[in-house]
Amino acid sequence: MNMTEKIELTAGGDASGMRLDKFLAEFGGISRNYASKLAESGSVFVNGVPAGKKVKLKAGDTVTAELPEPELAEAIPQDIPLDIVYEDDCLIVVNKPQGMVVHPAPGNPDGTLVNGLLHHCSLSSINGVIRPGIVHRIDKDTSGLLVVAKTNEAHEVLSAQLKERKALRRYYCIVNGNIKDDEGTVDAPIGRHPVDRKRMAVIEGGREAITHYKVVERFGRYTLVQCTLETGRTHQIRVHMAHIGHSIVGDPVYGIKKERFKTNGQLLHAKTIGFLHPVTGEMMVFDSELPEYFTVVLDRIRTSNS
User: Any idea where the RNA-binding S4 domain is (predicted)?
Assistant: First the structure.
């Protein structure tokens, strides 16, 4: 079996007496059912010894789980409604709704943006059969604009622009607290959290990550913020805002435990995207309206502050 990734965790005091499968589900970022299957297959170890799913942990135990390489079939075309902002022969700009996954992955084999795009048009093959056309991604519960390549040539040009930091990616978010400065830059490296695999974190030795932010509107307990990406690390804006003490409202991973508003995820929207057209060289900038799930909370905050 080809192993591509490992979960390595240390049980803290709060995990003492907890079943192994429950521990992996809570702290390892995988489902309890998947954790049970891994244990049954002999792929989970406690202090270096294979362990069953019902093993009770003690504080200080070292838990290692070997994750087999995921086996995914080719993404299939599906008739899914798409909000297409722009389209030509080499690229397409789509406004992704909150709750939609960008491409198939373990746990999300279909119903993704890629499945819908494949039904609508042909895509570049650079990223293989699971992520065709995908130049950059946004999280499932983040909404907003993405540019997707139809041809390999366009894909290469657009990817180079992102790598060379020539593309514009501007987001709006509502954060907890009143940010002191009207604008600023978070320059803090991001990598996988050393304990919790579900999370990214600002860590020494992480990949360079730079986010520029600007206050749009203040509400005392909350702030509407514009964030512009210079780099594009996983969960970058969410991690950086939490890092400076202003987590995004509704963020289930990096946010506060008791939120005032009920949301289906973080209030983060990819509002503006800009790039040089891969064929004409023309600068193209697209802007989107804030979606309803976002404005409903924003209006409630404004009303409560009036």
Answer: 18-77
